[in-house]
């Protein structure tokens, strides 16, 4: 499960779908294209949110894996290291998120791994 904007366990359709498939590696990638230009307040909020997510996962005998770098490389590497057949995410409709997800999906496909989009971090999908 590759967490991005949806840093929660409750009411997370992508996480529920991932868990229904078997063991889950909870993953977050610190993307330099997003982290670099972020100001101190945004970085602090993200760090607090990641700590809270990790604490919630640890209560369930798990934990959050945090990698830093290009999501295309990091997500594929993490999936390959654990022998994943699928990487689950919530759909992202933003310009950068859509571009990033397409690149990750292609790299995963090249490695024989599926990207599964379930749910979204919005109340209503853009364009609906």
Helix content: 40-55%
Measured by DSSP, the beta-strand proportion falls in 5-15%
Mean pLDDT: 92
Report the oligomer. single chain
Largest sheet: 3 strands, parallel
Head-to-tail CA distance between termini: 26 Å
Annotation field: number of helices: 5
Low-confidence stretches: none
Order of helical and strand elements: EHEHHEHEHE
The main sheet orders its strands as 1-2-3
Using only C-alpha atoms, the radius of gyration works out to 14 Å
The number of strands is 5
- Counting helices, strands and paired strands, the structural category is alpha/beta
Shape: globular
Give a verbal description of the structure.
By secondary structure, the protein is an alpha/beta fold. The protein contains five helices and five strands, in the order E-H-E-H-H-E-H-E-H-E. A three-stranded parallel beta sheet has the order 1-2-3. Helix 4 runs parallel beside helix 5. The protein is globular and about 40 Å long. The model has no long low-confidence stretch (mean pLDDT about 90).
Any chance you could write out the topology, listing elements then pairs?
Elements: E1 2-3, H1 13-20, E2 27-30, H2 32-35, H3 40-58, E3 65-68, H4 71-81, E4 86-89, H5 95-110, E5 114-117
Parallel strand pairs: 1-2, 2-3, 4-5
Helix pairs in contact: 4-5
